[in-house]
């Protein structure tokens, strides 16, 4: 288990995100179908670091949009590359996004 009491040497830890339209499976490290009545499950702490474009993984990746609120469009912030076994089109159709506040 990682130690979150001090900042990482490279990158940053991000917490407080919520996923809408799906859920994050911490066991497999992949996007999974949403559970019934769980509209915006909390994401685990995420480690973010910069990676050169030529070294980014592109297979089985969903470019998940991050929004400030439930309101889409003007509240867009950036995208996270999240791993998935499904085709990214499945999550696009489902409207999967990460939210900074619920």
In words, what does this structure look like?
This protein is mainly beta and 102 residues long. The chain has one helix and eight strands, in the order E-E-E-E-E-E-E-H-E. It has one helix at 88-94; strands at 12-14, 18-20, 23-25, 30-32, 46-48, 61-67, 76-83, 97-99. A four-stranded mixed beta sheet has the order 2-8-6-7, with helices on one face. A two-stranded antiparallel sheet has the order 1-5. It starts with 11 loop residues before the first strand and ends with a strand. The relative contact order is 0.27. The model has no long low-confidence stretch (mean pLDDT 89).
Short description:
This protein is mainly β and 102 residues long.
Low confidence ranges: none
Count helical runs: 1
Q: What is the radius of gyration?
A: 14 Å
Largest sheet: 4 strands, mixed
Task: Record the strand order, biggest sheet.
Answer: 2-8-6-7
Distance between the termini: 28 Å
Helix/strand order, N-terminal first: EEEEEEEHE
Tally of extended strands? 8
Mean pLDDT: 89
Beta-strand content: 25-35%
The helix fraction, in percent, is under 10%
The secondary-structure class comes to: mainly beta
Gross morphology? globular
Q: Which keywords apply here?
A:
102 residues; mainly beta; four-stranded mixed beta sheet; two-stranded antiparallel sheet; 1 helix
Topology:
Elements lengths: L11 E3 L3 E3 L2 E3 L4 E3 L13 E3 L12 E7 L8 E8 L4 H7 L2 E3 L3
């Amino acid at each position: 288990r990682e130690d979150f009491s001090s900042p990482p040497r490279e990158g940053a830890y991000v917490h407080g995100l919520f996923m809408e339209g799906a859920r994050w499976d911490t066991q497999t490290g992949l996007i999974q179908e949403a559970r019934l009545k769980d509209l915006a499950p909390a994401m685990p702490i995420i480690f973010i670091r910069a990676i050169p474009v030529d070294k980014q993984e592109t297979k089985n990746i969903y470019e998940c949009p991050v929004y400030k609120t439930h309101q889409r469009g003007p509240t867009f912030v950036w995208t996270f590359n999240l791993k998935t076994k499904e085709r990214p089109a499945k999550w696009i159709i489902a409207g999967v996004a990460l939210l900074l506040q619920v």
